[in-house]
Amino acid sequence: QAYHDAAHLAIGPQYGANPLSMSFVTGLGERYPRNPTCEVCLADDVKDPYPGIPVFGVFAHLSNGHPFYTIANHDANNFPYIMYSSEDRPVLTRFIDHKQIIPQAEFTISTMSHTLVAVGLLAKRRNRLRVQNATLVLDDGSTWGSVRLGLAQPYTLPTASCTWIFDETSLNTLGVGASCGSGE
Fold first, then answer.
1. Count of Cβ atoms closer than 10 Å to residue 157 Cβ
2. Contact 166, 157 (CB under 8 A)
3. Largest CA-CA distance found in the chain, in angstroms, rounded
4. Cα–Cα distance for residue pair 32/97, rounded to 1 Å
5. C-alpha 101: how far from its chain's center?
6. Cα 170 to Cα 120: distance, rounded to the nearest angstrom
7. CB atoms within 10 A of CB 56
8. What are φ and ψ of residue 110, in 5° steps?
9. Are 176 and 150 in contact (CB under 8 A)?
10. What pLDDT is attached to residue 55?
11. Is the separation of the CB atoms in 177 and 168 below 8 Å?
12. Which InterPro entries match (predicted)?
């Protein structure tokens, strides 16, 4: 039981229980990544990316060997300014929501499957975790911090059928309010 409870706490930072109050899964919560490294997401006419994509999130060090990383590391692009402030901002509270910042904005099949399996197993076990009125609720009725789950708008995948990662069953299980459709 102790491991199970620890696992529940371990998923919190990815879903918004972090100093940024930001979910690192697209479409979940009030603050979530809107510019992941997803070329397919950019090719459609939908403003937001596909829901349910877990990006890497904050990253401790971006090397200066890449022009986008150099720009992201520059003090002028961080607020509050780090080098000239009496109150330094910890490096793990800096997140740049841009598709070219690969260590923060990318995702992989592996990370998507790990997240889906972990959340699915935790939700299934004794039905301890459920989405109720867009708030994460524990079995004792208490809410888990201020984590809020839910899409900003209903979403239809712009494909003739569901993709291999999202299908009607998995979307309904996750409770994200999405549906499969032709996108027409």
1. 21
2. yes
3. 55
4. 9
5. 15
6. 9
7. 18
8. -60, -50
9. yes
10. 92
11. no
12. 6-hairpin_glycosidase_sf, 6hp_glycosidase-like_sf
Write the single-letter amino acid at 178. A
132 vs 18: CA distance, rounded Å: 21
d(CA 155, CA 130): 21
Strand ranges for the chain from DSSP E? 130-132, 135-137, 143-148, 155-156, 178-179
The SS3 assignment for 146 reads strand
Total-model pTM:
0.59
* Count of positions (residues) in the chain: 184
Residue 39 pLDDT: 84
Q: What is the mean pLDDT of each run of 10 residues along the chain (184 residues)?
A: 80 84 88 88 83 86 76 62 53 79 85 78 58 46 46 39 42 46 40
- The answer to whether 89 touches 81, Cβ cutoff 8 Å, is no
- Residue type, position 107, single letter: F
| Omega within 30 of 0 (cis) for the link into 67 | no
End-to-end CA distance of the chain: 47
As a whole number of angstroms, the distance between CA 142 and CA 177 comes to 23
Please give the Cα distance from 183 to 4 (Å, whole number): 39
Which residue, 52, 180, 159, is CA-closest to 107?
A: 52
**Side chain identity at residue 4, one-letter code:** H
Question: Whole-angstrom Cα distance, residue 58 to residue 115?
Answer: 16
